[in-house]
Amino acid sequence: MARKDINNLSAEELYELARQREQEEYEQEKEERKAQLAGLRAERKKMLARHKREIAEIDEQIQAMGGRSRNRAAKQGSQTGISAMVLEILTSEKKTDTKHIRAALEASGIDTTNLGQTLAYLKRTGRIKSAGRGIYAMA
User: Is residue 45 in some structural domain?
Assistant: First the structure.
């Protein structure tokens, strides 16, 4: 559109000019938001990397003092705790009742207060099956 004096424009021309200006402002705001988003994502990435380094340093200090870090089992990729022991017991025997499982866990020093929940979880995930009331076997 050629430059005309604003006083000589018709209502339709003014409306079209206003719509064009509105669209330009919208596009400019959209670009600004994109730039802000990119900046925030980069900041988040840096913060996450720094956080992981700090946690690794603390885990090293804990291990140096003889303690176990929280992510140790996840790093090893193996299952630990009561679930692993129950699976181990059931692997060595064909069918086992809850009393025998509880006794074996207590003999190895594992707390058995959540044994029922653990057995239900293992059954729900398909790792073990119930061969009868209180009797379990590997699936």
Answer: yes
